[in-house]
Every structure is written in C-alpha cells, then in structure tokens.
Amino acid sequence: MRKETLWEAQKRSSPGHSAWYISRFAQMREQGADLHGEARLIDAMVPRGARILDAGCGPGRVGGELAARGHDVVGVDVDPELIEAAQQDFPGLPWLVEDLAELDLPAAGIAEPFDVIVCAGNVLTFVAPGTQQEVLTRLRNHLADGGRLVTGFGAGRGYDFGTFLEDAAAAGLKCQQKFSTWDLRPFEPDSDFLVAVFGRA
C-alpha cells in the first residue's frame, strides 16, 4: 500500500496549498525574480539535447526552462494540481503524475534513461517518511551510463544531511560533489543548504 507523502499530507490539511504554491512562483516571475539558478547549473553539466528528468517538478519551473534551453525533458510530480499547472505553462512536454517512491518510467512507456536527474525545491523532504532510500534507488535506476543525479534541499526539514548521504550510498549512488548553493558556493559544516551531485557507485 502506497504511503502518503508529506506533500500530500500538507495538502490534505491545507487544501489550498498547491494553488498558493503555484501563484507564489507566478508572482515571483512577474516581479522579475531569478528563478532559473537550478536550470543554469544543470544546463552547464550536459550538451544540447540531453535527456533530463525533473523529479518532483512541481509546476514545471526547472524542467520548462531546461526544455527552452534545448533539452529533452520529462517531469514527474505526485501532485496532479501541480502537473496541470506545468502542462498549462509548458505545453507539449511530458508531465506525469508519479510518486517518486514508485517511479517506473519504462512501465509508462518512457524507456530511455536520463543523462541528468534534477531533484530541486526540497523535494526529498516531502516524500513519505521512510521512503527516502527507495526514492534514491529508483532515481538511480533511471540514470544512463555516466548519468548524474543532482539534488538540493535545506537543513532543518526533518531529513539530516548525514542521513541523506548514507541513504544515497545505500541506494548505489556515489557523491561526486557537494555545494551549499545552486551557484556552487562551497559546502561547509555549518551550511544550511546542500546541493549534491551523484553518479552511480
């Protein structure tokens, strides 16, 4: 039986949460905020036309920008409301409702693996408790040979950085680089955000 994600639990207790999240980023975009830091980093890691999975894509902010930069993007998110927003803002791309703990894109007809998987926006802190290692394993299984997984989330969100790195290692991932920001500031022991780059172990 599938476990409820923390995002779904938050949405159940606050039914307007997804709409607020969508409008928040729409307002930031209208105000001229720089919303593409994650996409710039991912874009720099791959050649044109790379296959990229936006895991926990929300309303498509990162994946949509990467598609505009010439990449072959697939986005998945557990929230149908966020996927609908992604479909409206970035039509023509495959946006799928998927729980990362059960991710099996070949079963959905998307068999080709990915050069990069990006998991931004604190996604790993919103999965169902106890499923983090399974999520990381499934993401690893969708990587092409030489592919990389890039994750980013903040401290104090119920998922300790050390535990995360242990889960990643147990999932068959090797940490290649750690940063404290998406613009590649060094990661320090007191950093309150972690951007980690993994390859297959």
Describe the structure using short key phrases.
201 residues; alpha/beta; 7 helices; 7 strands; 34% helix
Average predicted confidence as pLDDT: 96
Count of individual beta strands: 7
Calculate Rg over CA atoms.
16 Å
Task: List low-confidence stretches.
Answer: none
Described by the principal axes of the CA atoms, the overall outline is: globular
Strand order, main sheet: write it out.
Answer: 3-2-1-4-5-7-6
Query: Which percent bin holds the helix content?
Result: 25-40%
User: N-to-C SSE series?
Assistant: HHHEHEHEEHEHEE
Estimated share of beta-strand residues: 15-25%
Cα separation of the termini: 30 Å
Structural class: alpha/beta
Largest sheet: 7 strands, mixed
Enumerate how many helices there are, as a single number: 7
Brief sketch in words of this structure:
This protein has 7 helices and 7 strands, in the order αααβαβαββαβαββ.
Structure description:
By secondary structure, the protein is α/β, with parallel strands linked by helices. Helices cover 34% and strands 23% of the residues. Helix 3 crosses helix 4 (61-68). The radius of gyration is 16 Å and the shape is globular. The relative contact order is 0.14.
List the helices and strands and how they pair.
Blueprint lengths: L5 H8 L3 H14 L6 H9 L5 E5 L5 H8 L3 E6 L2 H10 L5 E3 L16 E6 L12 H10 L1 E12 L6 H10 L2 E7 L13 E8 L1
Parallel strand pairs: 1-2, 1-4, 2-3, 4-5
Antiparallel strand pairs: 5-7, 6-7
Helix pairs in contact: 3-4, 6-7
